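@channel sequence for tomorrow's demo:
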Amino acid sequence: MVKTILSVGFFLCVGLTYGQQTGKTLKTRDGSKYPVPVLTAEMTKYAVEHGSYILTEVKKDGNAIQYDGEISAEKAKKVNPADMGIAITDRDQYYKITGTNQYLVVKSTWALDGEMKMQKR
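structure tokens (generated this afternoon):
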């Protein structure tokens, strides 16, 4: 009985550890892995002027995308996601601007990290 409980506990720990590790890297088509960029103070500072942009139509692979919500035109003009009350995550976020045919795109840590690296070159 004790061996069974210890075995179940061991496999639970191993499973949880594996699950935590898989969320921290991105595996590309060629099999290489990249760590998910963490939101740093430098990235947050960069996002003040480059954290979002506005589009008229948003499609991905020719299809309309799923939006994360709606936002007022007044908030969407602020550019800095923190000023809009939106947290920067590891994926781009899309918001419909209320009363318009425009959409706000909040850049991901991937996009911000890539832009910052390109500027340093």
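heads up for whoever presents: The chain has two domains: 2-27, 41-120.
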